[in-house]
Amino acid sequence: MSTTSTTRPGVRAAAPSRSSFVVGGMVAALVNAGLWLAGRAADVTFLAHTAFGEMTVGILEILLGTVVMFAVGAGLLVWATRRSPAWARAVLVSAALFAVLSAIGPLTLAEDTSSGALLAAMHLATGAAFLASASRARGAVAA
Known about the structure:
mainly alpha
């Protein structure tokens, strides 16, 4: 079985499988909810200082942020896949960089170390789940 692209120039590649992204988004949301619940059980405040003042990051913000970022990433990957394999690779590399770089925010804006560490872990978990979903989705197209 080869995963080499068989598309010719000017021929669009098939879009990645939507079900991989739905499952991946649900897994990421559950992992992030679990991290949040474990943090709350350990009396983590999840307090962050933003440009708009202090904000306590709640479960709703966690779940919505996870689902929205997954949907945006999946949409960009579908669009890029239709353009070319190079564009799809660029989106995947950008997604990995975004997950890592966005994790810096909670580390610098959180009130305490435990809040920052758990919020940063959520960013990384979402990025890892997205990349795993994208890999499965692209593998399903290539198979």
